[in-house]
Amino acid sequence: MGLVKTLSGRIRHLPDINSDKPKIKSHAERQSINTIIQGSAADITKMAMIKIDKNIDQGVLKSHVQLVMHLHDELIFEVSNLVLDKACSTIIKTMESAVNLCVPLPVKLRKGSSWGDLK
Questions:
Q1: pLDDT tens across 29-88, in order?
Q2: Domain tally for the chain?
C-alpha cells in the first residue's frame, strides 16, 4: 500500500517502502514512523491552537492574550499581567483536552518576561 496516516487522517505516500534496495527501504521506514509521530503531534498542536483562539476570543481574555509564535510543539503567548492566571488556566485546559485520547496529554507551562527566560 505504501502510505501512513497521522492521527487526524492526513496521508503521506511512501512508495519506497516496497523497494528492493535496503537503504531506500529503511529510509522510507524511518519516514513512516516519523510521519506518524511528528505529524500527529503537529495535528494536535494545530487543533489546540484553533480551540485556544476560540476560547480567548470570548470574554475578558480577548484583548489581553495573543499567540506570537508556534515552534514545533510549543506555543508562545504574550499575556497581560491583568489576566495571567486566567489565561494560563484556559490555555492548559484547552491544550490538554485538544483531542480525546486514551492517554493524558500533560502540558508544561512556563512564564517569563521574554522567550529567553522560558528556556
A1: 999 999 999 999 999 999 999 999 998 887 778 889 999 999 888 899 999 999 999 999
A2: 1
CA proximity to 45, closest of 11, 75, 2: 75
CA separation for the pair 93, 86 (Å, rounded) = 11
pTM: 0.83
Letter string b/e over residues 29-50, b meaning 16 or more CB atoms within 10 A of that residue's CB: eeebeebeeebbebbbbebbbe
Sign of the CA dihedral with 36 first, then 7, 106, and 96 last = positive
Q: Give the domain CATH number at 34.
A: 3.30.70
Pairwise CA distance, residues 22 & 4, whole Å = 19
Domain extent for 114: 3-118
